[in-house]
Design brief:
The protein has helices at residues 5-19, 26-39, 46-72. It is an all-alpha fold. The chain has 3 helices and no strands. It has a domain at 25-72.
Length: 77
């Protein structure tokens, strides 16, 4: 299956993280995105900010879900 070239870059980066046994978490990715957005806000369009905020919201929600499941277990069980 072929993916968009940027998605392929994401996959390659994930492989590097695995190979280096990185312990970086989704929470760290959320924080890095927020810092980058803040530092570059003057160069980003309203549409850019809206899209990146949506991505940040997904990261935040998934991080929160993972922390909840880790602390309380899977609610489906």
């Amino acid at each position: 299956m072929e993916f968009h070239p940027v998605v392929e870059q994401f996959r390659a980066q994930a492989e590097i993280l695995d190979a280096t046994q990185s312990t970086k978490s989704i929470d760290e990715a959320t924080i890095q995105l927020a810092i980058w957005m803040d530092l570059n806000a003057d160069r980003l369009s309203v549409d850019d900010m809206a899209l990146l905020t949506a991505v940040g919201g997904i990261l935040f929600r998934e991080g929160l879900n993972r922390r909840f499941q880790k602390q309380f277990g899977d609610p489906e069980r």
